[in-house]
Amino acid sequence: MNKALKYNISLVGSAFMCIVVLMSSCTTDPNSPGVEYMPDMYRSPSYETYSTNPFFKDSMTAQLPVAGSIGRGEWPETGSLINALPYAYPNTLEGYEAAGVELTSPFEKSAAVAAEGKVIFEKMCMHCHGEKGEGNGKLIDTGKFPPPPAYNGGALKNLTEGKMFHTITYGKGLMGSHASQLTKEDRWKVIQYIQELQQL
Questions:
Q1: Which end of the chain is more exposed for a tag (fewer CB within 10 A), N or C?
Q2: Residue 124 in contact with residue 182, Cβ under 8 Å?
Q3: Secondary structure letter of residue 43 according to DSSP
Q4: List of residues 6+ apart from 52 with CB closer than 8 A
Q5: Using an 8 Å Cβ cutoff, are 164 and 175 in contact?
Q6: Cα–Cα distance between 101 and 161 in angstroms, integer?
Q7: How confident is the model over 174-193, as pLDDT tens digits?
Q8: pLDDT for 110
Q9: Buried b (16+ CB within 10 A) or exposed e, 107-126
Q10: Cα 119–125–127 angle (5° rounding)?
Q11: Is 32 helix (H, G, I), strand (E, B) or coil?
């Protein structure tokens, strides 16, 4: 490329930049951004709900969910919308008692669900509660923590699944919340396995 062509390209580029700067700064309104390049990229036009929208085939702004979408909180196994809303019970004694009376599992009792719950239990619970839920897990053997009550003991043998779900969600006593580690589905599955341990 010869020097004259390079000079002309740089001259045109410089002139273009000067024009852009002048156009964006020449305004009497202090709140104006000046001339905007493609303003729709960062300030998109709004459409009324259920009005026409040229970007969709059926021209409606409200669209159906993508095929195969699962609604918020929907249980894929059951297709149920049980517990679809955010957890409704507060972290209070009243919330704990209400959950115990009103909250029930969306899963039917089955060996398959209990088996999945056992896998979760062995990964997330056994280190404190022990293999059979007797409160003698390896973490307790260190002597640094008091043992939790046995599942088949007087305090927990008849504990309802709603209270268990509430406890796993918020934590209770020295047990912290497991809501960030276990999905709602996983909590119900492990509860079904715990119910088997309650009967031992």
A1: N
A2: yes
A3: S
A4: 59, 60, 61
A5: no
A6: 9
A7: 899 998 899 888 999 999 99
A8: 94
A9: beeeeebbebbbebbeebbb
A10: 110
A11: coil
- Average pLDDT, whole number, for the chain? 81
Quote the CA–CA distance of 172 and 159 in Å, as a whole number. Answer: 14
Mind listing the pLDDT tens digit for each residue in 164-178? 999 999 999 889 999
Q: Which two tokens stand for residue 150?
A: 């046995």
**Degrees, nearest 5: CA angle 85-87-88:** 90
Helix H, strand E, coil C: the string for 87-154 is CCCCCCHHHHHHHHHHCCCCCCCCHHHHHHHHHHHHHHCHHHHCCCCCCCCHHHHCCCCCCCCCCCCC
Torsion, Cα of 167, 168, 173, 175 (10° steps) = 170
**What is the pTM for the complete model shown?**
0.60
Domains and CATH numbers, the chain: 103-198 (1.10.760.10)
Six token digits for residue 147: 């043992």
